[in-house]
Amino acid sequence: xxxxxxxxxxxxxxxxxxxxxxxxxxxxxxxxxxxxxxxxxxxxxxxxxxxxxxxxxxxxxxxxxxxxxxxxxxxxxxxxxxxxxxxxxxxxxxxxxxxxxxxxxx
Length: 106
Fold this sequence. Notes:
Elements lengths: L11 H14 L5 H4 L2 H12 L4 H18 L1 H5 L6 H15 L9
Helix pairs in contact: 1-4, 3-4, 4-6
């Protein structure tokens, strides 16, 4: 699975669609072996800084999917985000935490 760099998209709609694609395509088979975690986290951070709310929301949703596989260490990577975003991230993590018990690989 290739992780595209969000900076290469001039249109926010393409960045939004890319994040939705990652959300839909991450699976237990791909995540531990084929996903470049550093690049994915960098893309999520760029998307969280976007001015478009749809891009930010898809990044938060993708972050929730990543949390299902990585657990609590993922949350610590986003400690430097704004408090309002951290509240949204925490809400997403809480929403997916019930389904993530048997998926963690880290």
